[in-house]
Amino acid sequence: MQFDLRSFLESARVPYQTHFLAELTQADFGGFTLAAPAECDFTATPTADGAALLLCVKAQVDAACARCLEPLHRDYAFEREYLVRLRDLDDPDFELPCQEGCLDLSELVYQELIFEVPTVLLCSADCQGLCPICGKKKAAGCTCQPADQAAPADARLSILKQLLS
Q1: If 0-12 CB within 10 Å is exposed, 13-18 middle and 19+ buried, where does residue 1 land?
Q2: CA neighbours within 13 Å on the CB side: how many for 162?
Q3: Under a CB-based contact definition with an 8 Å cutoff, are residues 129 and 67 in contact?
Q4: Which domain of life is it from (predicted)?
Q5: Interatomic CA distance for residues 115 and 128, integer angstroms
Q6: Three-state SS at 78
């Protein structure tokens, strides 16, 4: 969805509000996916020297636990505020995804989701993960011998174990 930010900054006298769905279910987030399109509310309010922008996002994230690989589902809801002036649109270092004065709201939602959702997602804070020996979840009662008590895989490495003692 595109928002003509330049014309809003030049001539708007009343706030602009919209509700939209950001279809990002096929987007590459590098560790999670969206279960459904993100629900977004966008408001632009004229100020004395520019505009105050408010973006509210609600998204449902699907991923695998980084330790035990169990599927997990999380809901995220967050708000972001921006202050924009007309001269910002001509700044090559302007942070918002804007081209020729038009703000790409879907791209803005994508960028904010990248920042909001942690790169390592866990099913619970105390998840013990998988046993490196048998591959079962440690919390499910794995009875394998801990790696620090097991004999080294290669006898030539036994000297390293003695040095650590």
Answers
A1: middle
A2: 5
A3: yes
A4: Bacteria
A5: 26
A6: strand
Render pLDDT for 87-96 as a digit per residue (tens, 0 to 9).
Answer: 998 888 899 9
- Among 80, 103, 101, residue whose Cα is nearest residue 3: 103
The structure tokens 């708007």 sit at: 12
The CA distance from 29 to 122, in Å, is: 16
Distances (CA, A) of 164 to 137, 145, 146: 28, 19, 16
Q: Is the pLDDT of residue 126 over 70?
A: yes
Residue with tokens 């038009």: 102
pLDDT per residue over 14-49, tens digit each? Answer: 999 999 999 999 999 988 999 999 999 999 999 999
Burial 94-133 (b: 16+ CB within 10 A, else e): eebebeebebbbbbbbbebbeeebeeebbbeeebeebbee
Compute, in degrees rounded to 10, the torsion defined by CA atoms 94, 104, 38, 125.
-20
Which helix (DSSP H) or strand (DSSP E) does residue 105 occupy? helix 105-116
Q: Which amino acid is at 157?
A: L
